[in-house]
């Protein structure tokens, strides 16, 4: 065989191997989402088996098994959608890698759910349904199962289209729809639903305004001063102290309530003490960290990085403590109703139910969370550690303010509203600055108004998609829940 012929054969073989390599890579890429789906199905199956084990031998145990599967599915969706709001800004600001954010969030979410998650949860979510309308135990079980399944489906759809939605509102819509299907419109507490609807506006506005105000303060007192480092040594510890005070207050209300009764005045006192203590610790830490830094904005970003990472972890802990009930509250209600043959407004959550919720949130985050983490962190508006810190601080302060005022706000709406608030404030500030510069330039060198208007710092397509998803969450979940209720009723679990 000639040398040319041999060379041609090797070249042909190389081309064939390259084609196979590309085919293999394409197959692995296309199969990657199926891995997450497969692991999710295994987790849902294990949750159902655990329910069968813990309720073995009890009458009508099938309902608990199915409800456990629905609860596990809901927990997966909470992890995929809701956690992005806490970790997205830190990842977008490059204070955390995606892998680091997922690891911290998984640990903190699970710890929050298991250590500070509610021992007692309202089964008729926030009193939106009259328990007398669901006095029949079987009807009550169908309603809770329908609420879980419908909320899960809706959050799954929202995650697929890239819209961070409120899982609390999804469960509320699910409970409302099932209640209407079971007992008619009269069973719904419409004043409560009106307050929840008002929170669609209140939550993002509060989050956006506070985040924008914090960014304005940082620009005024730290960024646009002659000696940035000296200003940062004064104000960064103060901001860290404020953040610590907000979280200590929130976690006192959530966590210590299991040990003793904590009112808001005492929680605020604990928060103030924690804030002062952390401020005192932060002063020498920031002074040491800033030693030798150049007088430029890049140095400031470094000083905000560690506080931002800590705040993201605390937000995840608080979220796990607060939102695990969205996954396991209705499941706990089904377990109680099946064990006692009674309907109760509040029930204790068994440990195995809490474990399903905590693990489900972590699995959902690891398997499906990166999509929305990336969207919230970098696709709405550009974030750096200072802007992301304003979002985190806004989320903590707004939740405390809302608790004090008794407003039913959504942590999802607050966090995403904070991102929008930072972006729109930057747009306003840059437009104001551009106009001022343009007024001092010759007419030929000025940027046209239309060109300035085109240079938006917030992506309008994401803004419209997210707002639309917020508006339709409750009615969409309610409609799905009514359909699920009639289906479950027909199947007769």
From TrEMBL:
Biological source species: Salipiger abyssi
Keyword Nuclease (UniProt): no
Signal peptide: none
InterPro entries membership: Phos_transporter
Organism domain of life: Bacteria
GO process annotations (BP): phosphate ion transmembrane transport
GO cellular component: membrane
Protein name: Phosphate transporter
Membrane protein topology class: Multi-pass membrane protein
Compartments where found: Membrane
Pfam families with a match to the protein in the record: PHO4 (PF01384)
Similarity comment text for this entry: Belongs to the inorganic phosphate transporter (PiT) (TC 2.A.20) family.
MF terms (GO), sorted A to Z: phosphate transmembrane transporter activity
Chain segments annotated as transmembrane: 34-55, 61-84, 96-116, 139-159, 171-190, 196-218, 230-250, 262-281, 302-321, 349-368, 388-407, 413-429, 463-488
Keyword annotations of the record: Membrane, Phosphate transport, Transmembrane, Transmembrane helix, Transport
